[in-house]
Amino acid sequence: MHPNHPKTWSFRKQLRILILIALFSIMGCGIFGAWRLQQLIFSQITIQQSSQALQQNLHSNFEKTRLIGEIHTQLRLYMQSGSTDNLNLIHKYSEELRHKLSTIEKKTLELFLETIDTLEVRMKSLDQNTKKIIQTEKVLINTTEQLMDISSKEGKIIWPLVIGTYLQHHQLYVTSITTNQIDTLIHTQQDATEIFTTLDSQLTTLGQTLNSGQRVFIEKLKTTNYELNETVQTITSIRIITLETQHKIEQFLEALNSEITQDSLSKNAEAAALMGTSQRMARINLLFMSASLIGSAFMFALIAFFLNQRMIKPLVGFVELLRRMTKLLAGLRGQQVAEDDNLIQLSKMASSRRDELGEAALAVQVLITRLRELSLFRQTIEADESTKDIYARLAQIFEHKLGLERFVIWEQSDEQSAAMAAVYCNPHELAEELPELAIAEHCRAKRTGLMTSSLETPFICKQYPFTDTMDHICIPMLVGGHIIGVVQFLFSLDLPEEVQHLKNMAVEEARCYIAEALPILQTKHFAKKLEEMATKDPLTGLYNRRYLDSMIEQFVEGTIRRKSKIGVLMCDIDHFKRVNDLFGHDTGDFILVQLAQMILNCIRKADLVIRFGGEEFLILLPDCGESCAATMAERIRSIIETRKIHAPNRTLQQTISIGVAEFSYTSTKTIWEIIKLADIALYQAKSNGRNQILICQDDTVQQETEHIS
User: Fold this and answer.
1) 526 neighbors 486 (Cβ within 8 angstroms)
2) What is the DSSP string of 442-460?
3) CATH, range 384-531
4) pTM (2 decimals)?
5) What is the architecture, at CATH level 2, of domain 545-703?
6) pLDDT tens digits for 48-76?
7) Helices (H), 406-496
8) With 0-12 CB in 10 A as exposed, 13-18 as middle and 19+ as buried, what is 503?
9) Mind listing the pLDDT tens digit for each residue in 248-295?
């Protein structure tokens, strides 16, 4: 249990005082800052209003400029196509522009619209003359064709003249329509006059050679030529006037655009002056606010210095101490470390400080002490020889350190076994009342791998036998995904709540010790399994030659110490090779297993059976009396002879030959020499017909039984 320290100057109290000081500082700076902030906000509002007015002016002027651009575009399109759609768009954009202009600008727009109306009249006249020139050209062509019908000879002379003049006039017409240069249009008029004069002169000269009927067509051609020339001249004149009108209209648009630009510039200058004044006020306010912030920062720096000296610096020292203690704890794995300066320093901090840091130091001291105990416990059990020793140490911890009086440690002997047995009980009398768990999976904790507690869920486990008198908590021992056993703690049903709480805390601490022991238990199990794999035959489960080599000396020493004898039986299955050849090695392996089991059923528990070779077995009979070896050999031979072996798909009957020898504590020969004599006796028995035993005495082999067919 942790001792309670009176916190005379706790972190909470220190922080409360610092917070009050900080609040008063913030309030003073806040009032001053609020006043200056109000001034700054006023400046910002002024700047914002000026900016909004400027933005609205720019937006309005942008719309005006955009509409002027649209009018200008539609004007050019109208000049090229004469379409009423373009003219309608000009009037539409002009109407929109009217709503956005000032009174002076509207007057300029009115002059512009009047000029547009004049331009519209002239464009209509241009359109009429364009239609007229097309009709005149058709008349010119038709008249020439009629003249050719009357007189093909003169028609062939007139046709190229008329067509050439027509093409030249048409080219001039196209030029007058497409060009936007007044100089080009004046030259077009002059060229049209020359073309007209030339053709008129040629037609007059040609008419003097024709008769009166043909001269009528010549006069008609001259009249048509004159009309064509007049139309071209008229179109060219209209184009000159429309271009002049267009230039005048563009001058109106430029003047209007210039007025809008001047208005934008004047508004920009006003806004810039207003924003300059507001920015100066804002800078002054920012200077005052900066001074206020600097004062606040200085105050917080003082508070931070106090925090560093009173809280942070001790915490840093505490963390550094913990780091050194961690290294100290890590050193427990390699050697046992006693109390050192670091732990003493931690203990002093826990007892001297009357604040949360002292509590933390005390908690860490307890934690590190507990971790040290766990580490020392692990280091201790690593040197134990068997799992039985480890369970005994766990039981000592449970009972004497944690105060858990009743508990049972269950263990599953190996993965092949389905049963789980109690390997340690406290008190020992409890073992008589425990159930038999022939099937380990019936245990809920073993099956689920989860801690099971009847304190939380009564009657949770069906296998628990003490439901009327005791509660239980079962902790599975999980290692590498496999549960090797269960630790079961038992409690009386009538425990007070305070005592039960202490017991639960003790169980939680016991889980830490169990967790430390589990890897060591697993290592011991693996070591035992490896030893069995190295010393036992995997087919029959009997000991092998390697086990014989490792234990024979101790076996003999015990015999000599007890002044007794060892019976040595060397056995060999008769005709075993024929079984393998006829029925296969699977059947042969099955027979080996069955015969090994028959031999084990015949001998005593203290006797030792070793698979000496392929079908050879060596049996050692310790403390063997007079004729005991021969009697045991005959018993084995007769049982195997009379017992039928039901192999898969067939029934067989085997016999065995046995050589018998004895090793006495008075023998002059070694145990290996005695085994060799038994082997010689075995081969003599097989040579004599098999299914018999031969006893070797001294250096001779005597026949004990006759051959049995």
Assistant:
1) no
2) GSHHHHH-S-EETTTSTT-
3) 3.30.450.40
4) 0.44
5) 2-Layer Sandwich (3.30)
6) 777 777 777 777 777 777 777 787 787 77
7) 444-448
8) buried
9) 777 777 777 777 777 777 777 776 776 677 677 767 767 776 777 787
